[in-house]
Amino acid sequence: MIDSFKVSVLGLFALLVFFGCSKQTMPPEEIEKMTSRTYAEFSPNAIQEALSDLFFLADDRIYEQRQNSDQFRATRNHRLDIGLTFVKAKDTWEVETTPIPEGTRVQLDVRSDETWISGKTRIQVPEGPATYHQFWSRLDFLLGQSKAWMTCRDLRNEYLDNHTWGDTWWLCSEVKDRIPPELIKGIWETAKGLPLDRKDEQDCSQAVRENVYGAVLTSRQQEVYQSLCLQEKGYDKVDDSDESQP
Fold first, then answer.
1. Whole-angstrom Cα distance, residue 134 to residue 171?
2. Which domains does the chain have, with CATH numbers?
3. What is the Cα–Cα distance from 121 to 111, expressed in whole angstroms?
4. From CA 229, how far away is CA 180, in angstroms rounded?
5. Taking a C-beta distance cutoff of 8 angstroms, is the pair 47, 106 a contact?
6. Position 231 confidence tier, pLDDT thresholds 50, 70, 90
7. Which pLDDT tens digit goes with each residue over 4-54?
8. Residue 241 has what pLDDT?
9. What span, in angstroms and rounded, lies between the C-alpha atoms of 39 and 45?
10. DSSP codes, 42-57
11. Cβ(95)–Cβ(37) under 8 Å?
12. Distance between CA atoms of 224 and 217, rounded to whole angstroms?
C-alpha cells in the first residue's frame, strides 16, 4: 500500500513538472550560459565519447545515438498517458562539439516534438535550469572534471529542497538511470560468498564482445554489460571496505 502511494505521488509530481507548473522563465542570456560550455584540453572526440556514455547510462535501450566529427545526437520516442488522452513525443538532444584553440566548445540544444491525440503539435524545450544542471554535472563527471554523479533522485531532492527549479523529467522519465560502473566498488561474489569464477568472467567477456547485450562504443559501456552478465550468473558486487579489522 505504501509503495503504491509513493508511486502515485511520484507520478503526480512527474506530471506537474512535465506540464511546467513553474511560471518562472530564464532570460536569453541565462539560457545561453546554460546551453554552452568550453572544455579546455578535451578534443571533440573525447567529448562525444563522454556524451555516448551519458545517454547509455541514462538508458541504453531507448536512446538512439548518432554522431559525426562535430555533432552528437541522441533521440528517444515515448508517450505519456493522461486520462483519456496521450501525448506522443520525440526528445532530441543535439550537441555541437567545435574545436577551438583552448579546447572544445560544446553547444547544447534540447527539444521535444509533441503530438497530441487531438492532432495538436508543439515543440517543448526545458523550463528552468534543472535539466541543464543535471546534463552538465554528468558530463563533467564522465570527463573526470567532477567526482559527483547526479542521479535522478539527487536532482529530485535538489528540486524539492528549492536548490533548483524547472523540468526534471528530461533525463529521468521512464529510464534506467544507471550509475557509472567506476562508482560501484567491491568484489564479485555469489550469494553464498563464493568468489568470481574465472570461466564465468571469460564467458561474460565473450558475450559482451559478441554484442549479446547490445553494441558498445566505449570501455565504460563494456563494463556495464560485463556487470549485467555476471549478475545474471548469480554474482553481486560486495563492498568489502567496511570489513572489521583484527
1. 8
2. 2-160 (3.30.310), 181-238 (no CATH)
3. 13
4. 16
5. yes
6. very high
7. 433 333 444 444 444 444 456 788 888 889 999 999 989 999 999 999 999
8. 63
9. 12
10. --HHHHHHHHHHHHHH
11. no
12. 12
CA 29, CA 23: separation in Å to the nearest integer? 18
For position 70, what pLDDT does the model report? 94
Query: Taking Cα atoms as reference points, which of 83, 19, 94, 63 lies closest to residue 174?
Result: 63
Classified as helix, coil or strand, 37 is strand
Residues contacting 144, CB < 8 A, separation 6+? none
Count the Cβ atoms, other than its own, within 10 Å of residue 67.
Answer: 18
Q: Which of 191, 182, 18 is nearest to 114 (CA)?
A: 18
How confident is the model over 153-175, as pLDDT tens digits? 999 999 999 999 999 999 999 99
Q: pTM of this prediction?
A: 0.86
User: Is the Cα dihedral 144, 224, 236, 10 positive or negative?
Assistant: positive
Number of other residues whose CB lies within 10 A of the CB of residue 34: 19
Q: Scanning the structure block, which residue is given the C-alpha cell 503526480? A: 12
Chain CA centroid to CA 138, Å:
8
Measured CA distances, 138 to 152, 180, 190, 218 (Å): 11, 10, 31, 16
Return the C-alpha cell found at 29. 542570456
What 3-state DSSP class applies to 32?
Answer: helix
Distances (CA, A) of 140 to 37, 117, 133, 134, 143: 11, 39, 11, 10, 5
> Does residue 60 contact residue 228 with C-beta atoms inside 8 Å?
no
Residues 6+ apart with CB under 8 A from 234: 190, 191
CA 31 to chain CA mean position, Å: 21
